[in-house]
Recover the amino acids of this structure.
C-alpha cells in the first residue's frame, strides 16, 4: 500500500472521529466504511460513531441500524449498547432503553455513561429514587460529570425538592459553563420555587447558548405565565413551537395563556393539538375541560376532565376542576366528593386552602339542599362558580364576620370528624365559639376510634317489593298521601325526589338526619350513590 493511500485512509478515519457536525460526521464515516480496509473492531467503532451522528439529527431508525451493526461486528464493545439506550430514551421508550443500558453495564460495570443514561430513563418512568441512585453512581465514578449533576437535579425537581435541584444544577453549570440544558433545568427549579425573576435569567442564558431549542422558550413562557404576562408567555410558547412543532408542552402552555385571556377558541385549538399529538398526556384534557367550564359547556368539561383523571388519577387538580363543574351544575354531593379527593391527593401547599374552602362552600350548599340536581340542567344558566384555574383561591361566600366564617368552616369539620380537621379549625379560628368543642373532639378522638358504615345501596326498582322505609330530605316530611312535602304559606310543596329509598344508617344504627351538620358527609355519600353512573 502506498504512503498516499495510507494517508488517505488515515484522513478518512480522522474525519469520521473529529468532524465538527453530524452531517460532516456521517459523510466522513461513510467514506471510511467504503474506502478503508478495517478489521471488525474498527468497523464497529466507525458504525457506532455514525450512529451517534444520526441520533443527533433525530434520524433514530438509521441510528439504531448502525448501532446494531456495530454490536454484530464486535459484541464486546460497550458504546453501541449505550447508544441504543440513548436512542430509545429519545424515542420515549424507557423500558427498552433500560434493557440496553443493563447490557452495557454487564460488559463494563464502571461505565458511567450507562448509569447516567439509565438514570434518565428511570426519570422518564417517574421512578425518581432509582434515577437518583444511578446519577449518584455516575458522579461517584466521575465527580466532574456535569450531565449526571444535571440529571440528578432534574430528578430532585420532579420529586418536589427544588432546593436540592438548584444545588446540583449550579454544580453542573460550574463544571460546564456553556451547558444550555443545565441553565434551562435550573430555570425550571427556580420556577418551582416561585423565584420567577431568577428563572427568567437562567432561561435567557440557555437561549443565548442554544437559540434553536424549544425547552428554554417553553420554560420562559411558563415563568411569564406565572407572572401573569400572558402575551409574553404566548410569544415564547410560539417560538418554542417554531423551533419544534412537535413540542406538546408548548401547545398546552399556550392554551392555558389563551384561556386566561378568555380567548377560548384559540385555547381549545391548542389543547386539542396537544391531545392529537400525545393522547396519553393528561394535562391538556384538563385544560380543555377548564376552558369548556368557563364557556358554560359543562358536559363537555366533565368528559375531558374525566379523561384527565383516568390518565393520571393521582393529580389533585383534576378533581378540583371537576368539582367546580359539578358545583356549577348544582350537583353538590359530587362536588364535595371531588373536592375531598383533591384535598387528599394535594401536595401543593399553595392550593390547599382553596380546595378546602371549595369543599366548605359545596357542603354549605348541600346542607341547604341535600338532594341531587337533575342532570338535564340548562348549560347556559349562570351559576355561582368556585375558583377554577388559580387554585390557591377559593369559591366566594360572603361572611358577616370572622366567627360567622368559623361557623361555616365548623360545618365541614364536623362532617370530616378527624383530629387533623379539628386542629385545622383551631388554627383558622382560635377565638370563636367552637374552640372548646374542637378541643373536646380532639381529646375524644385520641381515646376512641370512630368508624362510619358505608352509604346505603341505591333505591329499589319497585316499592311493593322492598321493605325499605321512605324518608325525605331535610326540610321535608311525609304527608297522608305518602308524598315528601314542605309547608310553605299553608301550601303543599312536593319534593323533587319522592322515590322510596332504604334508610341510610351510620355506624350507630340511627337513621341519617341531613339537617344535622355532623351527618352532612354521610348524606353527601348517600346522595352521590343515588346519581346515575355512580359506583
Amino acid at each position: 500500500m502506498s504512503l498516499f493511500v495510507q494517508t488517505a485512509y488515515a484522513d478518512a478515519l480522522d474525519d469520521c472521529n473529529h468532524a465538527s457536525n453530524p452531517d460532516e460526521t456521517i459523510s466522513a464515516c461513510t467514506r471510511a466504511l467504503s474506502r478503508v480496509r478495517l478489521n471488525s473492531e474498527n468497523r464497529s467503532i466507525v458504525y457506532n460513531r455514525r450512529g451517534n451522528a444520526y441520533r443527533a439529527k433525530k434520524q433514530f431508525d438509521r441510528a439504531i441500524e448502525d448501532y446494531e451493526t456495530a454490536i454484530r461486528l464486535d459484541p464486546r464493545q460497550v458504546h453501541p449498547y449505550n447508544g441504543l439506550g440513548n436512542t430509545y430514551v429519545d424515542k420515549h421508550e424507557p423500558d427498552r432503553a433500560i434493557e440496553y443500558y443493563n447490557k452495557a453495564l454487564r460488559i463494563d460495570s464502571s461505565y458511567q455513561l450507562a448509569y447516567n443514561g439509565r438514570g434518565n430513563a428511570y426519570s422518564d418512568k417517574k421512578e425518581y429514587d432509582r434515577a437518583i441512585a444511578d446519577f449518584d453512581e455516575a458522579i461517584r465514578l466521575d465527580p466532574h460529570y456535569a450531565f449526571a449533576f444535571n440529571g440528578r437535579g432534574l430528578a430532585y425537581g420532579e420529586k418536589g425538592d427544588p432546593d436540592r435541584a438548584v444545588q446540583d444544577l449550579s454544580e453542573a453549570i460550574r463544571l460546564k459553563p456553556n451547558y444550555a440544558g443545565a441553565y434551562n433545568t435550573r430555570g425550571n427549579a427556580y420556577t418551582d420555587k416561585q423565584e420567577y425573576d431568577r428563572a427568567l435569567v437562567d432561561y435567557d442564558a440557555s437561549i443565548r447558548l442554544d437559540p434553536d431549542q424549544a425547552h428554554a422558550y417553553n420554560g420562559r413562557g411558563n415563568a411569564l405565565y406565572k407572572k401573569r404576562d400572558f402575551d409574553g408567555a404566548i410569544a415564547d410558547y410560539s417560538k418554542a413551537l417554531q423551533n419544534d412543532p412537535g413540542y406538546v408542552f408548548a401547545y398546552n402552555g399556550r392554551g392555558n395563556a389563551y384561556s386566561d385571556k378568555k380567548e377560548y377558541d384559540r385555547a381549545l385549538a391548542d389543547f386539542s393539538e396537544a391531545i392529537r399529538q400525545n393522547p396519553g398526556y393528561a394535562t391538556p384534557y384538563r385544560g380543555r375541560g377548564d376552558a369548556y367550564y368557563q364557556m358554560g359547556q359543562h358536559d363537555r368539561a366533565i368528559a375531558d376532565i374525566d379523561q384527565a383523571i383516568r390518565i393520571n388519577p393521582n393529580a389533585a387538580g383534576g378533581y378540583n376542576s371537576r368539582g367546580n363543574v359539578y358545583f356549577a351544575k348544582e350537583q353538590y354531593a359530587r362536588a364535595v366528593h371531588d373536592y375531598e379527593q383533591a384535598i387528599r391527593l394535594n401536595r401543593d401547599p399553595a392550593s390547599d386552602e382553596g380546595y378546602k374552602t371549595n369543599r366548605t362552600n359545596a357542603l354549605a350548599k348541600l346542607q341547604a339542599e341535600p338532594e341531587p340536581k337533575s342532570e338535564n340542567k340548562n348549560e347556559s344558566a349562570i351559576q355561582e362558580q368556585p375558583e377554577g384555574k388559580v387554585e390557591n383561591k377559593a369559591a366566594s361566600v360572603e361572611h358577616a364576620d370572622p366567627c360567622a366564617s368559623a361557623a361555616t368552616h365548623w360545618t365541614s369539620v364536623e362532617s370530616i370528624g378527624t383530629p387533623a380537621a379539628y386542629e385545622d379549625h383551631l388554627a383558622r379560628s382560635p377565638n370563636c365559639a367552637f374552640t372548646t368543642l374542637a378541643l373536646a373532639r380532639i381529646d375524644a378522638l385520641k381515646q376512641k376510634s370512630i368508624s362510619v358504615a358505608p352509604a346505603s345501596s341505591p333505591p329499589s326498582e319497585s316499592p311493593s317489593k322492598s321493605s325499605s322505609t321512605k324518608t325525605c330530605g331535610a326540610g321535608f316530611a311525609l304527608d297522608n298521601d305518602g308524598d315528601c312535602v314542605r309547608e310553605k304559606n299553608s301550601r303543599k310543596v312536593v319534593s323533587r325526589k319522592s322515590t322510596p329509598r332504604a334508610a341510610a344508617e351510620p355506624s350507630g344504627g340511627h337513621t341519617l338526619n341531613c339537617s344535622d351538620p355532623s351527618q352532612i358527609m354521610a348524606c353527601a355519600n348517600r346522595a352521590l350513590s343515588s346519581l346515575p353512573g355512580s359506583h
Q: What stands out?
A: The first strand starts at residue 477 and ends at 478. The two ends are 82 Å apart (CA to CA). Residues 357-372+400-456+472-535 form one domain.
